[in-house]
Amino acid sequence: MTVTPLGIPRRLLEFTLDGEPVRAPEGSTILDACRAAGKDIPTLCEGDTLTPKNACRVCVVEVEGARTLVPACSRKAEAGMEVRTGTERARHSRKVVLELLASSVDLSTTPRVAEWLKEYEAKPDRFGPDAARLNEEPRVDNDLYVRDYGKCILCYKCVDACGDQWQNTFAISVAGRGFDARIAVEHDAPLTDSACVYCGNCVEVCPTGALSFKSEFDMRAAGTWDESRQTRTTTVCAYCGVGCNLTLHVQDNEIVKVTSPHDNPVTHGNLCIKGRFGYQHVQSRD
User: Fold this and answer.
1) Which of 61, 78, 119, 184 has its CA 20 to 30 Å from the CA of residue 276?
2) Distance CA 113, CA 55 (A)
């Protein structure tokens, strides 16, 4: 039997979404309301365990009376507001943002981007072969995870997860300005010389694959990574008594990576180094 926690009741707000009256709990964002209404709004920087950063601007919608398009991921729903999600202005903005992102970084491992590029008829190659791209080599300086900044869209989710929203390690931040802005550790040193505690919570929230498990990176390079052949099994971590939930991703009878359910009340998707990376003993044949 599934038990649903009641929580504190919230007042329902009434407003108009694409001409239809809808209700949403007070404190909900426009994106929350859109999802509840079954409307698919693209977003990259929004995370269900983090405070919205308004970085990618792919989720913009029109709100009656607002001078500019507003990010649906952070704008709170208000009683009486009129929201339009599929106007020509909003769709054109999403198209341009997708083109700019896809022309400057590698989005090949970003879920649903290929679908959105097709839906909005975005053409990243229209900027020509001389469009500035990062084209950085992946940084492989440890055995746990890889930093591939050629796929980074500067969504700040890893910075927030490492900072005051979850881990409070503050090992990574944004360095540089403009097109030279990068996610980096202090003094842009190797990860092994930084304050990183290798919890992997930054990997958990990365939307593009700029941060990935070393196991996944190696299998993709070898052409053996296949999510369609993977099973997911959620269990409880046995390292300590906290009760963190682990989701084991298994391919060909081998654990290839470990994540954590974002809706788990104990972890909210976060783990320590043992829970996320300490699984090798399970499949040791010695």
Assistant:
1) 184
2) 16
